[in-house]
Specification:
By secondary structure, the protein is an alpha/beta fold. It has seven helices and six strands, in the order ααβαβαβααβββα. The chain has a single domain, classed as Rossmann fold. Bound molecules: iron/sulfur cluster (SF4).
Length: 239
Amino acid sequence: MNKLNKLKSICAGKSASAIIHLVISEFPVDKLALATSFGAEDQVLTDMLCRPITGLRIFTLDTGRLFQETYDVMHRTREYYGIPIDLYAPDPGELADLVREKGPNLFYESVENRRACCNVRKVHPLRKALHAMEAWICGNRRDQAATRAELDPVEWDESNGLIKICPLCDWTEAEVWNYINENQIPHNALHHRGFRSIGCAPCTRAVGLGEDVRSGRWWWESPEHKECGLHNRPSVPQK
Ligand code: SF4
């Protein structure tokens, strides 16, 4: 049985915490990492990984366009758990070329431009972060977006060529917040101002009651376009 099938088998029907600890036992410490953008789901996973400290590497993508509140929760998370967090930034030359050619606010002009920006600021740094890794963990949930409705806890990440683990795939948003409130863990202050899913500042806005959780991300685009390329899935082609 290959590693992917073994993980699918041993993780089936397990709790998020059990999945995390099962996958940690299956990989060398330098071959598995948690990707965080300090959203509510990522803070739950960080808490599960750090209480007690497992030593698993945690990294984030610093796009250069994040909210100050995101840097604040990044700082608080480091201090609260006493852990290092690795930052991956865009390649300076690639970023300079993009901005020189298309301007700093290119993302509002077309889906193509928006994807070009996400590629330079997120997708390429993610590839660097995942280089030589065998698996990564992230906080995706099925009910976050139409593009994530079929998500499994253990998947093959075709774009990056490694295993992706989504321990919270079947959690609801309410379960995420119950965990945060019960355990009183650090979280982004923007969540209290109507921001339910938080990305880069120019591409994220607060959403109203009853609106879709990711409707504040790239709000000028239609729902089927709303992935930045970090979580493309073969069964959900980009339109
Ligand atoms: S979310 Fe917006 S600013 Fe951030 S990388 Fe994508 S297009 Fe660029």
